[in-house]
Amino acid sequence: MTAQGEAKQGSASKWLNAELQYDSGVYNKHQVVMVRGQGATVWDEQGRSYIDCVAGYGVANIGHCHPDVVRAIKEQAEKLIVMPQTLPNDKRAEFLTELVSVLPQGLGRVFLCNSGTEAMEAAKKFAITATGRQRFVSMRRGFSGRTLGALAFTWEPKYREPFGDAVDNRNVDFITYGSVEELRAAVTDQTAAVILEPVQGEGGVRPASPEFIQEARRITRERGALLILDEIQTGFCRTGKMFACEHSGVIPDGMTLAKAMAGGVPVGAFAMTAEVADRMPGGGHGTTFGGNPLAMAAGVAAIRAMKREGMAEQAREKGAYFMERLRAIRSPKIREVRGLGLMIGVELKEKSAPYISALEHEEGVLALAATPLVVRFLPPVTISKEQIDQVVAAFERVLGSVNPREGRQAELAGVREEKQTE
Ligand SMILES: *Cc1c(COP(=O)(O)O)cnc(C)c1O
Q: How many other β-carbons are positioned within 10 Å of the β-carbon of residue 328?
């Protein structure tokens, strides 16, 4: 190794060691230090490039470091970074106007926060005050976030059980995702809201049928409950529409948003009807950082870029192409390829972790798990067809080369499915 190579190696392990030493330990760190990103490509400290089908867990929909977002952040940083929501701000007003213009008709009011789980907390509180009810219906395999309130809607027991009764989900009924019968039985005159992802992400990349979402709309309306769609992962062009609800034509009473909304900067929102918003008492909810001008500037630039560059259309076309190519792979290890737009899952007949690890280490492709059996691809919408071809070819190679019984690859990369999740 050259002296320069050694120096690079040395500094890489320095950063990695610092993370391993000081991080809380809840994440399984890969043996790599990422330093730069552009479009659908990221680079590690050694200068090695990766095609990024993780995209910050579905955040970088418009690509890493989109030039418009970069420029907006720079300009706003020199003007004003923080201003609480009691004090109106030009960028916040611009963002709200821009966001409401792309939301389904009727969702004209927005609570701004900083993450997906906070959006879900807001949804929960607004649903309670809007209906005067406290029961919820959530979905098996559903994922709603990690704070204690949102965790109550999250089905996977391993996320909840370490915290015992502090996760109070006595007022949550879980039903089978897609079962109209169970939904009909679960929604009563005590139900504040039905919470549902149009495509389950964490739960294995499972699109709901349009009919299920339409039935959920009908049943909730009949019984005076709200329909809240969790579009945190599906929103902002991921599924081939600006929002996944557009595939079924359903307009919910509330929608949780985050991830891709501001081109990579942390933002969350609960968008709702005026009827829902108006029932929350003044001061009933709030957050310090929500709606800060820096994030708002990034959000304005991101949403405008999505519209101008036809990102929804791109996701639809590229997603169809990506899935068609994946379905053409002849491998006895594949059980099913499914998804919507560029939210794609490949369910294997065995654990996905060794394949995800091999993709990273041998092929320079980043992918993520969704349940132990599924390889999930959430690339930036700006990914090129050539890059999709490269990902598919790489996936085909690792399907052929990885011997799952060895399982050593996964350990080396620190990819264990227990923690391979947002
Ligand atoms: C990521 C995600 C969340 C949680 O968002 P955070 O920003 O990680 O808190 C909630 N629901 C869904 C569907 C998600 O994909």
A: 10
